Amino acid sequence: MASLTGTQRLVVTIAVLASFVTFLDGTVVNVALPAISDELGGGITTQQWVVDAYLITLSALILLAGSLSDAYGRVLIMRIGLIAFGIASVAVAASVDPLMLIVARAGQGAAGALLVPSSLALITATMRGEIQARAIGVWTAFTTAAQLVGPLLGGLFVDFLSWRMVFLINVLPIAITLVLLSRLKLPEHPRGAVVDWASGVLCAAGLGALVFALIEQPRLGWGSPAIWIPAVAGAALLIAFLVRQARVTAPMMPLDMFRVRNFGWGNLATLFVYAALSLNGFVVVVYLQQGAGLSATAAGLANMPVTILMILLSSRAGALAGKYGPRIFMTAGPILMGCGALLLLTVAIEFNYWWQVLPSMIVMGLGLSLTVAPLTAAILGSIDESRSGIASAVNNAVSRVAGLLVVAMISTIVGGMLDLNGFHSAALVTAGLMAAGGIVSWIGIRRIPAEAAAAEADV
Fold first, then answer.
1. Three-state secondary-structure class, residue 94
2. Which parts of the chain register pLDDT below 50?
3. DSSP annotation of 385
4. What is the distance between the alpha carbons of residues 448 and 43, in angstroms, rounded to a whole number?
5. CA distance linking residue 207 with residue 201, whole number of Å
6. Nearest to 140 by CA among 406, 401, 332, 319
7. How far apart are CA 130 and CA 263, in angstroms?
8. Could you give the CA distance from residue 45 to residue 99 in angstroms, rounded to a whole number?
9. In whole angstroms, what is the distance from residue 316 CA to residue 314 CA?
10. Distance between alpha carbon 81 and the CA centroid of its chain, in Å?
11. Cβ–Cβ < 8 Å for 267, 395
């Protein structure tokens, strides 16, 4: 990245490390779920809540955090998020029962919400055009690798130390990021403290109620008032949230941004692709332990081909997308990942990783490498720099909500039990979601010249 200035290199490093913390913690937990369930109890329902408690607050508050980032300055918000995330991580590691663990995970999600939009906004605020696409490619390679290497690190900690230590992995990157952040000197121009707190409450309450209904529905049934009342209330609160966004002067999620073609269609593609990634990430790691009988470390190692391919290819894909446009990459990548998901249908009772899982991981890794950097660049590059914080927050919120909802529906998708049939059902759903992401990208994504992006963002 010789074309970047020293300050831009520092920005990319800080953005990578700050995002690494949240992306790592969002996936490292998957491999620890069986060990958590063995020690604290609760079965698949508790496992779903451990994942979704983090995603509820992260998804709901990441929009608010985007506004805070633009209102008070990205560096300040990032610093607060790093410190809060460290404190919440210690609380997770010290949990003595499922309730304490779930509450602490929600705290982690709230702190993580402050990190991702502010970190990516640092890149979009200091770089444009092909340089920005290349920088986002580097950011994507390492942050996505954090998601993919998380199961391996988690497996090693679970097998040789404790599942509690899994949540302390991020202490070192937090400390390093805080030091580097103190050295970053950027002129920040906060727009003022106009933050829509009421919308934050509507979004968080709506998502929380809806997810509660989806997770508990297989146990209680849709006919139970404990299910349909939260479901209806959650949907009503989310509708109220959208109505409010159209009316307030400083919305958390400016709906006019969705009139920008690449932003609107790109976020729809994000919804499908990240729902599929979340479903696949949860099901594969847990099934390899509980169904195929692998150790936590071996289950984590299963994802290494994807990680290696992401590190090797993602930056290059981002640069090529900046040169040739993102449409072909965002179409071919998800469809290729869908083919990789279908290869998981070869998994049988007589389990063999090398013939049944490895081919899928290789194909998924190639597809993911083609997809993520062009997707991020297409969406954020279409929005003016002055709204980079909220644009990043919206895109990240979409990806988190996608994961949140699909994890809440896992019991329904796998038929209540993650056995071989349930595993195959999840693979089919994953393939369908990936295909939808590719089709949406082909229909909606267009190459926008850098000089025209700002004009379209103001439409």
1. coil
2. 1-2, 451-459
3. G
4. 48
5. 10
6. 319
7. 18
8. 12
9. 5
10. 17
11. yes
Judge contact between 87 and 176, C-beta under 8 A. no
Report pLDDT for 363: 94
Total-model pTM: 0.74
- Read off the amino acid at residue 396: N
Q: And the tokens for 115? A: 């990190």
Please give the C-alpha separations between residue 295 and each of 32, 242, 337, 395, in angstroms, as whole numbers: 11, 45, 26, 35
> Tokens 């999600």 identify what position?
109
pLDDT in tens, 78-97: 888 889 988 898 888 888 88
- Answer yes or no: are the C-beta atoms of 186 and 7 closer than 8 Å: yes
Residue 251: name the closest of 242, 261, 239 by CA: 242
What b/e readout covers 258-290, taking b as 16+ CB neighbours within 10 angstroms?
eebbbbbbbbbbbbbbbbbbbbbbbbbbbbbbb
d(CA 353, CA 174): 35
Query: Contact, 309 vs 128, CB < 8 A?
Result: no
Closest CA to 167 of 111, 233, 86: 86
CA pair distance 405, 386, nearest whole angstrom: 31
The whole-angstrom distance between residue 148's C-alpha and the CA centroid of its chain comes to 11
Measure the CA–CA gap between 374 and 97, rounded to whole angstroms: 42
Nearest to 66 by CA among 400, 404, 453, 388: 388
User: Can you tell me the distance from the alpha carbon of 322 to that of 81, in angstroms, rounded to the nearest whole number?
Assistant: 31
**In this structure, CATH architecture of domain 7-186+252-457:** Up-down Bundle (1.20)
Q: pLDDT per residue over 152-178, tens digit each?
A: 777 888 888 888 888 887 788 888 888
Burial pattern 72-96, b for ≥16 Cβ within 10 A else e, equals bbbbbbbbbbbebbbebbebbbebe
For residues 209 and 403, the answer to whether their CB atoms sit within 8 Å is no
CA distance 299 to 286: 8
Name the burial class of residue 186, with classes exposed (0-12), middle (13-18) and buried (19+) by CB atoms within 10 angstroms of its CB.
middle
- What are the structure tokens assigned to 427, written together? 């693979």
DSSP for 225-258?
HHHHHHHHHHHHHHHHHHHHHHHSSS-SS-GGGG
